[in-house]
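User: These chains co-purify. Model them together.
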Amino acid sequence: MPASADIRVHITDQCALFARPSDDFRADILVAAGDKVAQGAPVLRSRRHPDLTLVAPVAGEVAAADLGPGKRLSHILFFHDAKAGRHEHDVSAARAENDPVAVRALLLSAGMWPLFRSRPFGRVPLPAEQPAAIFVMALDTRPDAPLPQLALAGRLDAFLRGCQALASLTNGPVYVCHDGAADLDDLDVGNDRIRLTRIGPFHPHGLAGLQIAARFPAAPGRPVWDVHAEDVVGLGSFLETGLVPETRLVSVSGGALREHRLVRCQPGADLRALTFDIVKPGPHRLLSGSSLDGVEGRWLGPWRRQVAAIAGTGTERSPHWFSAALRRSSRPLPIIPTAALDHAFGGILPAALLVRALAANDSETAMRLGALSLVEEDVALADYITAAAPHLTAMLRAMLDRIAAEEIA
Amino acid sequence: MTRGIWDRETVALLLLAAAMPLAVTWLLATGMQGALRLVFVLIAAGLWHLAFMLARAQPPSFAGALTAFAVAVLAPAELGLLPMLIGISFGVVAGELAFGGWGRNVVNPATVAIAFLGFGFPAAPWPVLPIQLGWAAIAMAAIGMLVGVMAWRIAVSATAVLVIAWYGGMLAMPFLTAAAVVLVLLVCDPVTSAATDLGRWLNGLLYAALVMVFASGWQGAAAVQVAISAALLTSLAAPLLDEIAMRRWLARRKHLG
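Assistant: Joint model of the two components:
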């Protein structure tokens, strides 16, 4: 394990704020192409929730700003230029009284809000949302994940300050999940709503969704947020200094690379710039996320702390028409309950019943079995193990979207 | 996005591999007659898989071979070709292929076929399983549990009850052998047994309890007949056991909200 100080800071020349069409994020752009922006300066404001602002991930110049039809954000591209400096937010109101309303307003205006993820449905929480509980994940058990203790090392006071701020956002408990490696065991948090929770060190126990399902299931009207410990540290130091954290600790790994490396890079970093000097010859794909749950893309996505490079082009040689016909006609492929499937849910959820409900599109049973606490990354391991077709992640997302639409109606 | 290996055919192949000790023991015990019977059943079941592949685009499965082996071992002897063919066809088609193939079936096709033959042709004698098959069943269960394609909870709970009953003199040795072979070949089938932790414990206990009830109360029943009847009723009850397990799981989580 490298010491925390040895990890190289790698700010890529290009980076982007982006949204997928399915996010339907409608925004006003506060800058124009060619403008110099300081790191942390507001660049986007949500049209649906004008309190919610996104900030520049890097100091530099706005290279391009693309809004799709209906002012939906496609992406804003930034060129890095350290001379543009850092934007300092006014934190005096939030710091003086530790006022929950001021903290909330400050996080919304400083672009820190999208660090939280709200379940059910796994989205950025609404500005007025009051979480029933918050889960701080001080461990990450995914393959090749960066160790959160590297991000926490020497910054426990900022972490504590961040936890106190989180406690002010909710009336419920704040669970700090850790595996004992980050020296959190005998941390004096001074707040009985902050609960240190030690959990097993093996995948999938470090997934927030399974811990939420086991300890505090999310439900409509009872949102549960999760946030990574490194972001809590960033939150704590932001409330002290007014500076939005510049980097996050990212692990770059995968079969298409010559070596596994840890870097500190900005959010939305360019995946090609992070990998080009260590990639093996031949075609490869870059995933934002781990090899289990990553999505192919150019930029490091929100909540992602891993880059995986997978060898191959992703388009397999088209099979013989006969075997293709056999395979397509029998979808969804049956999933046989084995010990491997039980392990894929860590023994926390009834695996076979849940997978069956997902594949049968039985949202009622899936909701009873805890599907509302899950997002795609939580079923990615089961997806990998069973080679399910169609993907369990896709079936879960479709089900969650439908449940969300029914909730609104 | 790499893909893992635990798809349907991997599980079927591992189950077949686990069945090898049992197959070898059985073939050594029955010789040429058993081999011919196995080949006949394999061909009959394979033809139905082929028919469903061509007519319904249903990919055939190696699990069909396991079904054929179970039928060859456990079906009543001296039936003649035509009744045997009818029984296998009924089991394979109505028990498995009509539901969409292995993985979507509700009851084990071999259980259906054997029960159909046994009750449809009551004059045919049930096979008497040689005692070494019971030992081979232990090997099969060990391999199956080790690679994770058989639920150890079913095997352990059923075995515990059956062995205690045998030790206490409530179960004769032929019944124990038959119950063990049927347990590993049919009851532990991952598709048609219960799929939750509690459900699996109950599944094993229910099977063992039914074997004991039939063995003591069913006058004139053969050992295999007793075990097959218990297996059929158990697999019909499996969804109920899962439902019980799910209700209990939900009740225990009520305090979480």
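The CA atoms of residues 94 and 102 of chain A lie 5 Å apart.
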